[in-house]
Amino acid sequence: MNISEVSRRLGLTADTLRYYEKEGLIPPVPRTRGGARDYGEKEFGWIEFIKCMRGAGIEVEALAEYVRLYQAGDSTVQARKQILIDQRVKIAARLAEIQATLDRLDMKIEHYESHIVRHEERFASVHPVRSQEDAAPQRSAGRWRHCLRPPCPVRAHPTVGMRPDRARPAAPAAPWPV
User: Which residues neighbour 20 within 8 Å (Cβ) at sequence distance 6 or greater?
Assistant: First the structure.
């Protein structure tokens, strides 16, 4: 199979496949008489392996060393195994860091959800939601015309934000915190 077929099947660019070969991440790919790469099942398997390992964050240098040792033969089995063990330890450490980050994000999201619920409950008790029939806007235009809740009376007041020495009001604030 040619480089475009492999590229399409694995979702990699042709440049990536050439890079993998140039850097020694896959064994040299056989060529046709015309010089085009001719990928077989063996090469395809190597590319799948490298794609998986790179996706997990394994370093290019470690993978290149692994391939070099593989090509050296069975006398390098222990060294290849050690490379895999070392990379597994690094990935496990990163996975623990990611899990700690996920736990922290979950805690923060829970905090915001409980804060939003408390804020909405407090706001609803002060500003009850009006029905659709009662939702005639208090202004004919403006940003509150689509709301069911009336604008906050303090923020909607035309003189809020006015300085005595200025003739026009400051830009109005958002109707409520986001």
Answer: 26, 47, 50
Comparing 142 with 67, the larger pLDDT belongs to 67
Which pLDDT belongs to residue 55?
A: 92
Q: What are the angstrom distances between the C-alpha of 15 and each of 12, 24, 48, 82, 121?
A: 8, 14, 16, 30, 56
Please indicate, yes or no, if residue 91 is contained in any of the structural domains.
yes
**Lookup result for tokens 């909607």:** 156
* CA 64 – CA 77 distance, rounded (Å): 15
Question: What is the Cα–Cα distance from 57 to 81, expressed in whole angstroms?
Answer: 18
pLDDT digits (tens, 9 = 90+) for 128-140: 666 555 555 555 5
| 148 within some domain | no
SS3 (DSSP) at 85: helix
In this structure, which amino acid lies at residue 9?
R
Tell me how far apart the alpha carbons of residues 6 and 97 are, in angstroms, rounded to a whole number: 34
Q: How far apart are CA 16 and CA 25, in angstroms?
A: 11
- Structural domain total, the chain: 1
Q: Is residue 66 part of a domain?
A: yes
Residue 84 has pLDDT above 50, yes or no: yes
Across residues 34-47, what is the average pLDDT?
93
Taking only the tens place, the pLDDT of each residue in 108-126 is 988 888 888 777 777 777 6
